[in-house]
Amino acid sequence: MSVISRNEKDNNEPIISNGVSTKDEYPTGLALWLLVGSVMMATIVGTAIPKITDEFHGLSEVSWYGSAYFMCLGGFQSSWGKAYKFFPLKSTFLVTLFLFELGSLICGVAPNSNALIVGRAISGVGGAGIATGGTTIIAFCAEPRKRPTLMGLIGITYAVAAVAGPLLGGVFSDKVTWRWCFYINLPIGGVVAGIILVFFHLPSAVKVQKATWKEKFLQIDPVGIVLAMACIICFILALQYAGTTYAWKSSQVIGLLVGFVVIALTMVAWECYQGEYAMLVPRLLKQRDLWAASLYQFFFAGSFFLLLYYLPQYFQSVKGADPIQSGVDNLPMVIAIGIFVLAGGIIVTITGRPTPFMALGAAVATVASGLFYTMDTHTSTAKWIGYQILAGAAIAFPYQNCLNIAHAKVDAEDISTVTAIVYFFQTLGGAFSISAAQSAFVNRLIATLPLTAPGVDPLAVYATGSTELRTIFPAEEIPGIILAYMEGIKAAFAVCIAMFGTAFVLSLLLPWKKIHSDGKEDIVAMA
Questions:
Q1: Per residue in 380-427, pLDDT tens?
Q2: Which of 103, 170, 393, 394 could join 323 via S-S bond, C-beta 3.0 to 4.6 A?
Q3: What is the Cα–Cα distance from 491 to 442, expressed in whole angstroms?
Q4: pTM assigned to the model
């Protein structure tokens, strides 16, 4: 029986001859398109949320629509990374795809908010396996000279998903129903599953590590997953209840926040005890390059997802745009990301130094978020287009470079684990940022309404869908309600400013010297 010490180095990665495959045996293009699907699930809901709030009557659970997906996407990243070590790639990939599709189906037929949230969570579990598997496969199976190009394509993948998600969400919500934002994944997933079953062949260099079922179970770290989920749920519930259902000083809110801290500390202690079995391996997190890059990605990516959620709210609720127009209005930022992600890849290729551009990107993104904060009900088209282009350019340069830095100083057998750790922090950043922003939005909205629309019950506005405001309330009250909405959205943008600013501070802890993919080659990929 194979036994692994909790404190010895884990060598249970898939065994790969000479480190990588020497032939193009693996369908990396397919992996990239699966990544498009999982990322699009994170962005497609943004433009659909106002319509969803109309059907489910209110804003009370909006934060869960995004947070449930990001919570499970992040919480299960490392576990899927471990699963790819011990189970066949093909069958494991199909399991993740099945879960992703099952969650999409549940979202599509959801009769209420609770069912939608459950579906989003299940999709997140599957999406975590798709993201970890696709990225790890590319990192393992590409030749060193091709790896930079393929890893750079991941940045393009995110840009494609960021563009397609809001546009499709707007079209489906306005022309058919928001439910097609989720139904669309079903035929695509069926085709992908068929392709995998018929044409997918493992690279001959990859072999699954043998282990007992007990070892496999322990490596997945189920206790760590439960603690991570409980920690996030306490945080989200505390912010959801605070200032609306309960006062900030209430025992319910304080209890949830205390629970969040206690569970977080318990999780840290458990992960240290687990050693190599841990979801977040302590040996690796002792490296400053990894923990600094992971924390940077937590704040930076969290802010990006926040913008994807609240810019559509601005266009639809404040500007009165329909979902399709909202998706079009959001294009300047996502197109800028697609363009500048290429420019960022070229510049990092030339210099081999990603950190200066990560610091610059975070600084400029902070400024761009400050400009978003200055927007009001009368902001001109030229201004919000310019602000989005500036934000898109700033976000594009650093977004994927954390993986560059994280991979630079680890052995080949740790690549999947390190990749999962970075994605864990990245997606948890989305869960925490959206929850914090929603809390700020709702509390500012409710506090402002008595000043701008004194004749309106704040809780009635809170219980009304974003795009129903102009049809539910009297015309004379609408300007005041829209002003209060604008103040709420500004509060969400303030959260964005704080998070991008924190990312800038963390960038100063990253390595500023030239980094290498091995002893000879610079890591130049990533955009």
A1: 999 999 999 999 999 887 877 777 788 777 776 677 778 778 888 888
A2: 170
A3: 9
A4: 0.77
- Cα separation, 136 vs 81, in Å, equals 8
Residue spans per domain, the chain = 15-221+279-507, 222-278
Residue 339 CA: distances (Å) to CA of 100, 333, 335, 342 = 29, 10, 6, 6
User: How is domain 15-221+279-507 classified at the CATH fold level?
Assistant: Growth Hormone; Chain: A; (1.20.1250)
Q: Exposed, middle or buried: residue 67 (CB in 10 Å: 0-12, 13-18, 19+)?
A: buried
Rounded Cα distance between 359 and 348, Å, is 13
Q: Check: CB of residue 269 under 8 Å from CB of residue 89.
A: no
Q: Could you tell me if 52 and 177 are in contact, meaning their C-beta atoms sit under 8 angstroms apart?
A: no
Q: Does residue 413 come out as left (phi exceeding 0), alpha (psi in the -120 to 50 range) or beta? A: alpha
pLDDT in tens, 90-105: 788 889 889 999 999 9
Of the pLDDT bands very low, low, confident and very high (cuts 50, 70, 90), residue 361 is very high
Give the gyration radius of the chain's Cα atoms: 22
CA 202 – CA 9 distance, rounded (Å)? 26
- In this structure, of 16-25, 94-103, 129-138, 407-416, the range with the lowest mean pLDDT score is 16-25
Those residues whose C-beta lies under 8 Å from the C-beta of residue 464, and which sit 6 or more positions away, are: 53, 57, 58, 59, 472, 473
Q: Which residue has the tokens 């999982």?
A: 38
- Model pLDDT, residue 22: 42
Hey, what are 139's tokens? Answer: 């990192």
Locate tokens 């200066």: which residue? 356
